[in-house]
Design goal:
Layout (H helix, E strand, L loop, with lengths): L1 H23 L6 H22 L5 H25 L3 E2 L2 E2 L8
Antiparallel strand pairs: 1-2
Helix pairs in contact: 1-2, 2-3
Length: 99
């Protein structure tokens, strides 16, 4: 039961991240939706793995760990990209002066 719930939540947030990421290319205002759905995708992946960990063979474990690391890297890159979003038609880094 828990496995299916976590997989369904992971899938739903992954689809939301995909759609929001594509929409962000045209409307930067949707970036936060993309970022948080990406975070949700990663958050729901980990418990889905933990629930089934004992039933997975070594090769599958390595693949799922690699995918979890890839997800963490994607979240990290999205957080970095957040500070580079265009503001008012110009690129702006948070914490720096635009003057």
């Amino acid at each position: 039961m828990w496995r299916n719930l976590f997989i369904a939540l992971h899938t739903a947030t992954a689809v939301a991240a995909l759609l929001a990421g594509a929409a962000t290319l045209r409307r930067v205002a949707l970036f936060d939706v993309y970022l948080w759905s990406l975070v949700g995708m990663e958050v729901f992946l980990v418990p889905a793995l933990v629930v089934d960990w004992g039933d997975l063979d070594a090769v599958v474990r390595v693949l799922f760990v690699a995918l979890a690391v890839l997800g963490a890297v994607m979240v990290g890159l999205a957080v970095q990209a957040r500070s580079l979003r265009p503001v008012g038609g110009r690129r702006h880094r948070q914490g720096t002066s635009t003057g």
